[in-house]
Structure formats: structure tokens, C-alpha cells
Prior knowledge:
The protein has one domain (about 1-75): 2-Layer Sandwich (YaeB-like fold), CATH 3.30.2310. The N and C termini lie far apart (about 30 Å). It is globular and about 30 Å long. It has three helices and five strands. Strand 2 and strand 3 (about 50-55) form a beta hairpin. About 35% of the residues lie in helices and about 35% in strands. It is of the alpha+beta class and about 80 residues long.
Amino acid sequence: MKVIEERSIRAYLSARGLIKQYQKQKILIEGGYFNAISLKKLKPNSSGLFYFRINKQYRAIGIINHQTFVVLEIWDHQ
């Protein structure tokens, strides 16, 4: 599965020093290791949104569209 993010997402990650941690998770998604990154569906289930953990504090939210995970937002989980 391919992972795509917008430039604003990259700027957000860079400002918070999360680039390396995000890239590691991105490689795991692209390799198909969904259990290793805990890719989960965001509730309510009908929303169609998924999220994965970048580190203890930050999560990436996105949608799956034709074998592509589109990152829509990075948010502070705490």
C-alpha cells in the first residue's frame, strides 16, 4: 500500500521533529506490516477513517483509497 501526504503534513512533522519516526511507520505500511504499526479504524466505524501511531504522542489520520493511504491530518493524541 502506498502512503501519500500533503506538504502541510510534512511541514507539521518537520516543525515537531517527527520526520524520522513518521518515515519508519510509512515504510512499515508500504511493506504491509499493518499489525506492527497498529493501523486501526477510527470510531465511528462508518466514518471510513483510519489512524496509526507515529509515537506515544502523535497519530496520523487518513483514508484508504484504492491501495493508497492518504494522510489527512497529524494530531496530538494527548
